[in-house]
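Still learning. Show one?

>
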Amino acid sequence: MGFTSYSESRTTVGALDLSKIMRLVYFWLAMGLLVGFGIALTLRGAATAALESGDPTKFALFNPGLMLALGIGYIVVAFAFHPVVMRANVTVGAIMYLGMTAIFGLFTSVTLTMYTDKAIIAAFAATAGMFGAMSLIGYTTKMDLSKIGSIAIMALIGILIASVVNIFLRSEAIYWIVTYAGVLIFAALTAWDTQKIKRNAAQVAVSGDGTMAQRVALLGAFELFLDFVNLFLYLLRIFGSRD
């Protein structure tokens, strides 16, 4: 889409139209979180029981081959998500979005077995509070956050590389640097993505295209979903270490 500049869109849009689209963004975000975390928490019990039995094979997701297949499938679907949402029926896009959040839930069910209920609840509460605050900043600030977003993306690439390298180094210092950097990066990305989604929603509100509004809402919800779950996973490391 050829979105107009942020300054143009925010001066020509009625607040009512914009708020409707943004509510749709957060509706789909809430649905994605409900599906993803619902599956993760539901399957966590089965995964924990398999570990305690001494036979992890009782839980299918401990199979490395299956996890690899799910990971590849998720990456393929994620890359195809934008073009599919922009071209296919909105219902197809919605199913695809919820499917990706479900795959997140499958992966995370295994991760959650390493943490106590207390750590999970604390991390989720902290994530919700931090995410809400940063998203509010992104929605209300008059400052253009594009530069901050660009820096956050570059930093994200940096910690991804550091994480891969640390698989071999097994450095605790690098682990914690990546963890705290991850929290800061995804907090910044939350604000930037919210502002970007608001800008895109603003242009759609001007056009009055209801179908496009639904497409923008799905795309925006997926971006914020990724911000939320990654922020949660990094915070979970921190709270898990303190528990």
